[in-house]
Task: structure prediction
Amino acid sequence: MPQLNPNPWFFIMITTWLTYSFIIQPKLLTFVTANPPSSKTPTTPNTTPWTWPWT
Result:
């Protein structure tokens, strides 16, 4: 069964993983996030409880 032979696929998997880890990932991590975290304190909305008609 050729699916069980890891000879060509293992090399491709390792090469892809190393390319992603050492080349692509550092380039992606240098981008600035679109929504940086702010230093404002979160405010809770003022809500009123719902009055159910059957209670």
User: Anything to note?
Assistant: Residues 3 and 9 are 9 Å apart (CA to CA). The chain has a mean pLDDT of 82.
